Amino acid sequence: MGAYERVYEVAGRIITIGIDGGGTKTRCVAVNEEGDVLATVTVGSTNINAVDHATVRERLAEAVVTVLSQASAEPGEVAAIGLGMSGVGRPEDARRVRQWVAEMLPRAYAYVDHDAAAALASGTGGDLYGVVVISGTGMIVFGVDGQGRRRRAGGWGPILGDPGGGFSIGAAILQSITAATDGCGPATALTARVLAHLKLREVNDLIAWTYNQSGWAHVAALAHLAEECAAERDEVAYHILAWAADNLALRAETVIRGLGLERERFPLVLAGGNLTHGDLLRHLLTLRLEEVAPQAEVVTPPLDAAVGAALLALKQAWKEKRE
Asked: Which residue from 136, 132, 121, 105 is spatially nearest to 22, judged by alpha carbons?
């Protein structure tokens, strides 16, 4: 019998659920004992600091019920569930989420951590060791050393400070356009590119587009346009990405040195849409990180973060069982 079976005695199939609860959306997967993804579901944000608790609970329940239905599985077949959720930074928050899960899946082992842990696990095959740099709507750097000590930097949100995240890049794009329009900044290809992308006629139309929408995601969604214009040698776009890379690198260096990993060999996972799809930002960041931790192995996550959460739950369950 494998480790999974020794930890849990579950009749029939063995299912693990993984949840990656980000600030914009929540992905949920059902995985079988061979590691095959049986079903995937996406629901709204489950950030416990930005969404009321009743809604978070409802969305988690919707995700679990739907993914099990699509996988043609029963709740009793679920041996473990791993939840990596943004906003779960306090022990009482994790306890609350575990209580909700226990009501839905009373037989399942539940592991709750923040979403950066799931992202790290997606690059390490479920191991909590190494450092992950995430640039999505926001940003965060999270690390765990060989003794289990943790350190993080960033992740404060768009107003308190997520420099290098998608919102900060998108905001810099918009500000560069308005500066160019006012004549106090250099002309940039971003102006025409953004207007065309948003199907707007003139720069003044950006006012309504920006302020008539709630949240941060619509601004963050512009970040990829900096990559496009920088590839066409637009200096303003290049400097925006260089600024983002510098800020991500600074926070990564803080975490790496804080854990004493700068001379160690460890997985350095680059995650989030701006790094997995942004060639220039990733290149600039990698150059900086090589100076800080030359022995680190830069990794692109081969797995979805929700699958990482599932693997993390399995490994933590087995670890607790052995202890």
From this structure: 136
